[in-house]
Each structure stands twice: as C-alpha cells, then as structure tokens.
Amino acid sequence: MSQSLNTIYKLVKLLDKKEYEEVLRILSSQLNAETAFLLNYYEYQNSADILVGYNIKNEFNKYLKKLDIKKLINLKKELSKGLPVVINDIEEIDNFLEFKNILSDRNKKSAVLLPIRDNEKEIIGILGLVDKAKNKWKNEDIKILEILTYNLKYNWEDEILRLKYKSIIQNSASAIVIIDINGRIVETNNKFEKLSKTLNTKLENRYFFGFVHEIDRDKLIKRHQKRKKGLNVKSDYDFKFLDSDNEIKDVNIKVKMISGTDKTLCSLVDITEKKRNKNLIKIQEKKLNESYNQLKKSRDKLESTYLDLIDKNIENEKLINNIERLINLMSSLYISNNNIDKFLSDLLYTALELVEVADYGSVYIFDQKENIKYIDTIGHNLEKLNELKIKKKQFQHSKEEVSVVNNILEKNKESMNDSLKNKLKNIALPIKQTMTVLLKDRNNEFGGISIDIAKSSNKSFKEDDIRLLSSFKDLANTFFKLKKYKKLNKSFNKEIVSSLLNFLSLYDLYTNNHSENVAKWSQKIAEKLNLNDELKNDIYWTGMLHDMGKLIIPSNILNKKGKLTQKEYKIIQKHPVYCYKALNESEFLKDIAKYVLHHHERWDGNGYPNGLQGENIPLVSRVIAVADAWDAMRSKRAYRDSLSIEEAKEEIIKNKERQFDPRIAEILLDIVEN
Ligand SMILES: [Fe+2]
Questions:
Q1: Among 518, 605, 607, 651, which is most buried by a count of CB atoms within 10 Å?
Q2: Sign of dihedral through CA atoms 8, 11, 16, 21?
Q3: Residue 652: helix, strand or coil by DSSP?
Q4: What's the CA-to-centroid distance between 481 and ligand 1, angstroms?
Q5: Could you tell me which CATH class the domain 2-158 is placed in?
C-alpha cells in the first residue's frame, strides 16, 4: 500500500492536464480495473461529460459523453454526500438500480465512483473505475482514490472553472465577452456575436475597445488599465456600443476580473430600446405635468368664475348645466384620435352655449400657408367663408388671451382690401361685437374661436363672459394636449388616470388615499367572492376611479364644512354620471364605466343615479358601495371625526339589506373581524 500511495502522491504533485490519462492508466493497473475515467460534472444542468478516459471502448465513451444525472438520482445523492459508490458485483446491488442497468448493458460487472468536490462541497467532477469482472475493491484502494480525488480538486479546479465559465457563458442571457490584459477578445458567446454583428470566428483576438464608440472609448480603456493594476473602478455602467455596421447602441456593461487570471469577463445588455422609452416617458411626464398645472390653474379660474356666478345669485341649474357642458367636452376627447374637426366643432357649440349673449360664431385653424380654414360656423356660411381664402394676417389678433372688438370689419379695414371687405359684408351676418380666443399648442397658435353678438342685439359681452371663455379656452388647450399624448400608447392611459387621481386629491381635501383604500378593500372582498381575474382587475380600477367625477364639482361644495343645500347635494350626486361619460369613451376604461356609474345605487332601490335595486345593480358596483362606505366611515371628514371600528361595523350591520347587498356586507364584516 505504501508503494501505491507514494506513486499516487508523486503523480498528484506532478499532475498536469496532459498527464491525466497516465494517472488513469496507472490507477487501472494498480486497482485491477479495465477502464478509468474523469467526468466533468455540471450541477446546474444535471449532467456530466467525459474529460479524459483510459481504455474506454467506443460505445461506453459515447455514453459518457453526455450523461444525464437526473436518471441517476440515488447515485447523485450518495456522491453529493462526498461518499464513494462501490459496486463489487452488480448482481448483488439493490441500490443504484439505474446505474446497475447501465453497467450490465455494457457488460460491466463492477465499478467504483468518487466525487470530486470543490470548497463549497459542490461536485465538480467524478472519478470512475469500471471492470468487466467482479472486483473486490479494497478499503485501502478506496482510501487512495479518496486522497487522489481530494488532491485532484486543486489541480483540476482551473480546468473545471474554465469549463464552467464556458457553459455559463454560452447559456447566459446577456452578451458575454472575455478580454485579456491588452483588451484583446479571448472568448465570446453567440449573443455577443449578435450584438456586435460579427461572426464568432472573426472575433477572437480582435481589440474589444474597437466596439466602443469614440466618445466613451478613452474612459473604458482607462478603467481597464486601472482594473488590471488592481485598483477599484466602476464595474457596472452604460456606454455607447458600436457594432460592425457602425450602428450605435446603448449598452449596459458589468465587468469582473476572473479570479486567478488576468482576464476580464464583461457581460453586456443592449438597453437602446429601454433607454429610448425611458426618455420618451420622461418627456411625456414633463409635458403632462405642465398640462396638469395648467389644468389646475384653469380649474381655479373656472371656479372663481362660478363663485362669482353663484354670488350673483344666478341659478344653480345653470351652473350644473355648464359643468355638464364641460364634461361632455371632456368625454368627446376620447371619441376619436383623428377627429379634431369634431372636437373643434364641439368647442364652438359649447362656447356659444356658455356665453348666452352670443348669437353666432366660428371655429377655424390656420393652415400651412397661414390661411384661415373655417372648421365650423354657427350662423355664418361655412362654405362661402372658406372660398374667400382669408389670410391670418388680414385679421388683427390682439395679444390678450381673449379679445373683444366692436364692428370687426371696420376694425380690420386697413389689413383687408376693399374687395375682401365687400365680400365679407355680403357673406358674414351683420356683427356688433366679436369675442375671440386663440387656441394654442404650446406656443404655436393653431386656430381660434370667435363668437359674435348680432348687430341687432342690444346686449354686449360682460366681464363674466370674458372670464368664462378664458377659462374655457385654457381647458380646451389642455385637453388638446392630453388628447395628443393619449395617442402615444395604451399604458399611458394609466398614467393619465393616476395623475388625474393625484389632481383629485389636491382638489378634494378628503379624498386622500380614499381611492386606493376603496380599491384595496374591494379587492379583499373580490378574493372572498372567488371572482375571476378580469373582474378582480375591474374591481381594482373601479375602486381607483369611482370618485373621479368629483374633479368637476366645485371644490367649495365638495369641501363644504356646513350642511349641504338640496341643490348642492344634487350637484354632488352627479359625480358618477360625469365619470361614466368620461370613461365610457375610453377603450381601456369602458368596461368599468358602468360599474362607476352605479356605485351609489342602494340595495333597496333608493340610491342614485338610476335607482337600481338588488341584483340589478352590477356586482362590482355593489362591492365598491360597501368598500366605499367602510373607508368613508373610517376616515375623517370635514363635518365629523372618523368612526371607530365598532361604530362603523354597527352602521354596516344596520344598513345591510337597506343600503348594501347583505352577502357582501357579511363578507366585509368577516374580513374586518379576522
Ligand atoms: Fe362616490
């Protein structure tokens, strides 16, 4: 034994990759085995393949070339423990049956297998000896083999690591390139081939930094040089990549020195698309924010106009009417992306109805040649006006947001020639006073709305009318912008919705988190109701949006501390309808529009807006109704503190079968209790 041990020790010390076969030969002869082999073992792939063998016949060799470890589960278990598997006679084994079959298939009778494990006790290889005769493997022989495999690990690790890297590299989701100390490419995977648009065979020994755009090249080379000196440098960053077609890509790189070598492993991911989208969203967000600020401003303005109107004891009915006009306008935004003409026409009609003293009007855009193109008119003859091909500069446009001029033809007589003036006199209806607003897309004036008072009228535009039209114009411009962004993509609708919700919470002091809370409670109920995913999703969005209609309820009513008057209450009750109108036209939100509409219906039929009863109310709306009431009771309001859990439970119990679907009320109580 000491003789064999000595031999082995010597061998191990000497061991060099090329000498593996020699080791195996000596082992075979010393231990009376026909065949010996070393396998690479890939834990993460559950497979092994042959690294080197001694005296292996073709068929067995073929088998060892791709060993499926999954089929050798008991064998694997034993080897994972670090224990040798010793089979003296295959007839006598009842364990490792799968392995027994393999051996007998190949006319083998005995075998010994030993794991080679790394420092983390993970199998990295297998040493195997096989014989065609029964073989009584001696304990001392096994000891020798154990010592050998233990030592093999150190000599072999480099090789194993290299192979492991190779496999990881090829299977990696990112493009991998290994470069040497001089920045020359040593190895790549096919993803890098794709990224660089260069064949693998042409990549070896190429200068890696040739694939870096010159604006980043020096920076990357400097980092590489510092890294090889062992200095700490940034190892995860983005740069401009240049492929063989000279196309520039944004790429993220993660760099790591391969331990024990002077090589660097770089993992690259093409982030061009991601970056582009990110930038786009950033720009959109910025523009959207601007729009919302503008919306808020015009909202405030509109509100103060309303307040004035209320102060002057103008009927609330008219107020409701105006709000309804505006929400209709808002919903018309969603109708069609391309139907700008319809939108402009709606604007004109709305403007004329808002400003009661006006008799006629026109809406127009400026075409590329700065001609006025009339889109729609009320009173005036549209076709004949367009035949005149009036230039924009032939009408004076004031710097004011809203301009009011008397006798517009007289006012513009200098910029118009006589023939145009005469034609206009014949075509346009006689006008006493004209109020004009310009429509703007950012700083670009693209059109305008003019409304006129007839020459025969004894009325004229008042301060209130000017303010009303001015806030109306701001809203119109903002909606125009929103409409544009809506075109960009579907998911952007979600952004709009959440921004609108933010806006709503600014506006209504007591809505803070209410939408989210209702959405969350409703989802819990939906879970207990075992609803399908689509309904669950609908429930979530209904919860989020159910009070969005409050956006256009004047905030002095919404946030009023005292008791609401009958009329004010009526205004508030309109919010489900407003929201319904706005959502119903949106492809994305259509499904939930009707759920929102009915979230204030009552089980007993005494709710609004339609007085639906019992199961005629959509299930989603019934769920929202309970969740809405629960969260409202549990949070503070202008006129009261929040209710305690016990008090709120009382209320739910008291009102089930009156206000709430009793089954859903029970589910809520159940959730609250547990
Ligand atoms: Fe509501």
A1: 518
A2: negative
A3: helix
A4: 28
A5: alpha beta
